[in-house]
Write a structure and sequence with these properties.
The chain is α/β, with parallel strands linked by helices. Helices cover about 50% and strands about 15% of the residues. A seven-stranded mixed beta sheet has the order 3-4-2-5-1-6-7.
């Protein structure tokens, strides 16, 4: 799909993938705000399922049990303040899904193939809310591989570890990277055509500026092509 057809026929999706603590969430929010797009945190969706598993005493290492729960839980998508939330039984557990226990459980349930299938379908439904900035680990490779706007953020492990520690979170990022990149279902990898940004030593403002300028330039070029086509 070329830029013009995507621009004319459907909402635009900006995919921001990357490793843990590479600045995906911060930069995706900044890009969405600058462009007036809707922000989607797909990681929060996986966290919500992990929280729901723990709440219902489902073993997150039991693939069949997690799959069964994912098939029957009652969910809905809500767009509030230009951000998409996955509601469970009509509620968005914003605070609960950020606990250390949920964080530890999330990478396990995210490796379940049927869970990723369910999440992909639900995440693609977010297009109903308009132009999106969607961040995660498989947006450009699996959820919206057709988008022309793909970015992959990374930073050296020492830099990312410092960021996590500054947030008060203790996490083995090397182990998380290994699990994410080696899982059978939609592993973490650079999407075809993605612009890779290593933001080691960079501020969020510097990183988001690169992304925003790139997108605005390409949208302007696409609009020029469209106008030239209309004037033929």
């Amino acid at each position: 799909m070329n830029v013009v057809s995507q621009r004319v026929n459907a909402p635009i999706v900006i995919a921001i993938d990357g490793t843990s603590a590479s600045g995906k969430s911060t930069n995706a929010k900044m890009v969405a705000k600058a462009l007036g797009y809707v922000y989607v945190d797909t990681g929060a969706m996986y966290r919500t399922l992990a929280w729901y598993c723990l709440k219902n005493k489902v073993d997150v290492n039991d693939e069949k049990a997690v799959t069964a729960l994912c098939r029957k839980w009652k969910t809905a998508l809500e767009c509030k303040d230009n951000q998409v939330h996955l509601l469970v039984d009509g509620v968005y557990p914003a605070r609960e899904i950020r606990s250390a226990e949920v964080s530890a459980a999330t990478s396990h349930i995210a490796a379940v193939p049927k869970v990723r299938e369910w999440m992909k379908k639900k995440q693609r439904e977010c297009i109903q809310f308009g132009n999106l900035v969607m961040e995660g680990r498989d947006i450009g490779t699996n959820v919206f591989p057709e988008t022309d706007y793909k970015f992959y953020l990374d930073a050296c492990i020492s830099e990312r570890s410092k960021r996590r520690e500054a947030e008060g979170v203790q996490e083995n990022l090397a182990a998380r990277d290994q699990r994410d990149s080696q899982r059978a279902a939609a592993p973490l990898m650079v999407a075809l055509g993605a612009r890779v940004i290593n933001n080691s030593g960079m501020t969020a403002d510097e990183t988001s500026k690169i992304i925003i300028e790139d997108i605005r330039k390409r949208l302007a070029e696409a609009e020029t092509i469209r106008q030239n086509g209309d004037n033929r």
